[in-house]
Design brief:
alpha+beta, 109 residues
Length: 109
């Protein structure tokens, strides 16, 4: 089992979750974070730290969409172990749904 980052993180990227992770399994892209499912130990300490509820226990659904997304980007993006500065315009995107499909154009599973 693993935890996964979902749509709510896109364009918000608060990063409160990063510093509590005991195994440093978060990876960072321009618009959002992902969790490397093979590194996550399913401890769950990251989930309550996310102010937008973007972290869920996975796999998320029968299609495995978020498992595929987290796995893919964790293999491409750099590891992050220290909380960075979230985007200045994050509040404008906080309650928006469908952000992944709208803003991330380079993913196909």
């Amino acid at each position: 089992m693993t935890y996964l980052v979902t749509d709510a993180c896109v364009r918000c990227k608060y990063m409160d979750c990063v510093e509590v992770c005991p195994v440093n399994c978060f990876y960072v892209g321009d618009s959002f974070l992902v969790i490397n499912p093979t590194e996550c130990i399913d401890c769950g300490v990251c989930e309550p730290e996310c102010p937008v509820d973007a972290i869920i226990p996975g796999p998320d659904d029968a299609s495995g969409k978020w498992l595929a997304i987290n796995t893919h980007y964790a293999s491409l993006w750099p590891n992050i172990t220290v909380k960075g500065e979230p985007p200045a315009d994050r509040e404008a995107f906080r309650d928006m749904s469908g952000k992944f499909e709208r803003y991330i154009k380079d993913f196909s599973a």
